[in-house]
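ingest -> validate -> predict -> emit
validate: passed (alphabet ok, no gaps, 63 aa)
predict: started
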Amino acid sequence: MAAISRFFKNVTSEMRKVTWPTRKELATYTVTVVITVILFAVFFMVLDFGIEQLVQYVLKLGN
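emit:
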């Protein structure tokens, strides 16, 4: 039981050391992540479309 109590005291101690982002920083980070995810999604969509077209072209050559 003492180990659990010590664990939570350590957690509390470490959480006091954390520097939390301001509202403006958090908004900036959130927008950055959302834009990055959208760009990656578009990139992989275009890549997938290109591979699909290439496979269809190769299959048409085989017929």
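Helices lie at 2-17, 23-62.
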